Amino acid sequence: MQTLRTPDERFRDLPEFPYEPSYCEVDDGDGGRLRVAWVQAGPADGAPILLLHGEPSWSFLYRQMIPILTAAGYQAICPDLVGFGRSDKPTRIEDHSYARHVEWMRALAFDVLDLRDVTLVGQDWGGLIGLRLAAEHPDRFANIVVANTGLPTGDIAMPEIWWQFRTAIQNLPTIDIGRFVASGCRRPVSDDVRAAYDAPFPDDSFCAGPRAMPGLVPTSPDDAASAANRSAWKVLSASETPMLVAFSDGDPITGGMAGVFQREMRGAQGIEHPVIADAGHFLQEDAGEELAAAIVTFLRDR
Fold it and tell me: Is 96 labeled as catalytic in the residue annotation?
């Protein structure tokens, strides 16, 4: 598997993101190794919160939330998905698969970090990957937070705006990552923050991950990942693991999933689920402090 690695200087002087990265290597599934990056903050004995980002962002997305979670005594662990952030970037779209992304995060979370009693926070692809981990390794998770995400099986049609996004990011000659993130926000995004989202991608040769991810979402019942996701739904819907459904009020892509999670997940019953106001798809960017406060309240009520 051919990979690229973003030069370190691209990550200098990031606004509000002073955290030093850690690195490990995991099997790439093709006979080689991949470097995976993460940032970690908070007391070493604090209960771990695994914060998984989605497409096309990276762990920088959680910068407003980390100080609130750590001040409350939790340990925040924010990986960069393979193909994003400081993690290695396979250069071919076909090197990316749903199963590989699940395995790469499993290897980091459990083989390398040996996380236990984890609270998962998953948004966008962070939920698609994290919910699979929670279903397949239930003994590792104490709580689940779903935020503007889903677990698609291809049995329900994706919204038209998602198809428009998929077409654009797969077919544009070059991808303006910062612009895509800003377009998924309700509140203004400053130029330096947009530049931080662009930082992992010096040119389009680094963008196979962002281009690949929409094509990995199951859109038909016989998709390669559909059966595994159906199994995950079955496990999670019966699970007593507490689940907070913390969606924004302005996400046209995943907004309809909030009610589904609240109705179908046993662990979501009897919990007061917040609606994060004046926030779009990237609610961590729009309203990270509000989302973090809701998570702290949820955990303290357990």
Answer: no
Catalytic residue among 28, 124, 223, 286: 124
Q: Residue 70 in contact with residue 42, Cβ under 8 Å?
A: yes
Cα distances (angstroms) measured from residue 189 to each of 87, 117, 168, 285: 24, 35, 21, 8
Q: Are 120 and 50 in contact (CB under 8 A)?
A: yes
* Residue 49 token pair: 């919160």
Confidence of residue 301 (pLDDT cuts 50, 70, 90): confident
d(CA 294, CA 302): 13
pLDDT 10s digits, 86-96: 999 999 999 99
Write out the two tokens for 9: 């200087």
214-218, Cβ contacts within 8 angstroms, sequence gap of 24 or more? 214/55, 214/162, 214/165, 214/166, 214/169, 214/170, 215/93, 215/166, 215/170, 216/96, 216/97, 216/98, 216/101, 217/128, 217/152, 217/158, 217/162, 217/166, 218/98, 218/152, 218/153, 218/154
Q: Considering 28, 80, 88, 251, which one is annotated as catalytic?
A: 251
Q: Per-residue pLDDT for 302 more than 90?
A: no
* 204 belongs to the catalytic site: no
Report pLDDT for 140: 98
Q: The whole model's pTM is what?
A: 0.98
SS3 147: strand
Residue 197 DSSP one-character state: H
> Annotated catalytic, 80?
no
With a cut of 90, say whether residue 162 has pLDDT above it: yes
Q: Are 128 and 55 in contact (CB under 8 A)?
A: no
Which is catalytic among the residues 96, 198, 281, 286? 281
Go through the chain and tell me how many residues it has: 302
Contact 214, 166 (CB under 8 A): yes
